[in-house]
Structure formats: structure tokens, C-alpha cells
Design a protein that fits this description.
The protein is of the alpha+beta class. The protein has helices spanning about 10-20, 100-110, and strands spanning about 60-70, 70-80, 85-95, 120-125. It has one domain (about 30-135).
Length: about 140
């Protein structure tokens, strides 16, 4: 519009495009971090949302995400205590492997040292990493 000599605000363009159902072009390839493993049985959901705990070290929620940097993708795994609503373990990696996710859980266990009597539940989404360490054994 500016090239055609018609001044228009960016927010007006965004609003009109949203109203018309038009989206701008997105450059780059979309990174898929969670690939459901349909060959394995779905574990029982012990949390049943919303994520709430009565005491610390009762419910930890884990996930990982990615950030685009000048050097490529950076993957970040984190573990959150649902009671404290804060990160208790995290790791960053340049590759999406099982190891860095387990390292985040290991850091949380080392730092918080939960008692067996805490009845800690660790919840994460149902998925698998793209590359899996052959020595890793998933809990049953």
C-alpha cells in the first residue's frame, strides 16, 4: 500500500487481514518437536488437568521448546514444580535428543531432592524425540 502511495498503519493491515482470513508468508521450515508414538500404549493420565499441587514436589510438569538463533535452532527442556510455579530443572542443547530432556529432570531431582513420601508425579506430553538414545529405557 505504501509503494502505491496509500499511507496505512500496520495495525490496520493486520486487522483487515485477520478479518479477511488472510495470513502473511512465513519463511523457514517449521520444526516439529513432538511426534506421537502411536505404536506404544498411552500411559494413564495421573494429573487430569488443571495442573495444581497442594505441596512442593508433588507434581512436576515437563516440556521442551525451541528458539531460532543465528547459529541454528536451540532446544530448551524444562521441569516446573506446579506448586511453586517455577522452573526447578532445565537444559539447553543444539540437538533434540532424549539426553538433554533427561538431564533437565536429573537437575531437578538433584536440586530439590524430593522424598519418596512426597508421591511425586512427573507429567510430560505424550511424544518421542526424533533421535532416541538406544540405552534409554522408558518407564512402564
Amino acid at each position: 500500500m505504501h509503494r502505491e502511495g496509500k499511507p496505512i498503519a500496520r495495525c490496520t493491515v493486520e486487522r483487515l487481514m485477520r478479518h479477511m482470513g488472510i495470513e502473511g508468508v512465513r519463511r523457514g521450515k517449521r520444526v516439529r518437536t513432538t511426534i506421537p508414538d502411536t505404536s506404544r500404549p498411552c500411559p494413564r493420565d495421573l494429573v487430569r488437568r488443571p495442573f495444581h499441587a497442594e505441596q512442593p514436589n508433588r507434581l512436576w510438569v515437563a516440556d521442551f521448546t525451541y528458539v531460532s538463533t543465528w547459529q541454528g535452532w536451540l532446544y530448551v527442556a524444562f521441569v516446573i514444580d506446579a506448586y511453586a510455579k517455577r522452573i526447578v530443572g532445565w537444559r539447553a542443547s543444539s540437538s533434540m535428543t532424549t539426553d538433554f530432556v533427561l538431564d533437565a529432570l536429573g537437575q531437578a531431582l538433584y536440586d530439590r531432592q524430593p522424598n519418596p513420601s512426597d508421591s511425586l508425579v512427573h507429567h510430560s506430553d505424550r511424544g518421542r524425540s526424533i533421535r532416541v538414545d538406544p540405552l534409554f529405557r522408558a518407564p512402564r
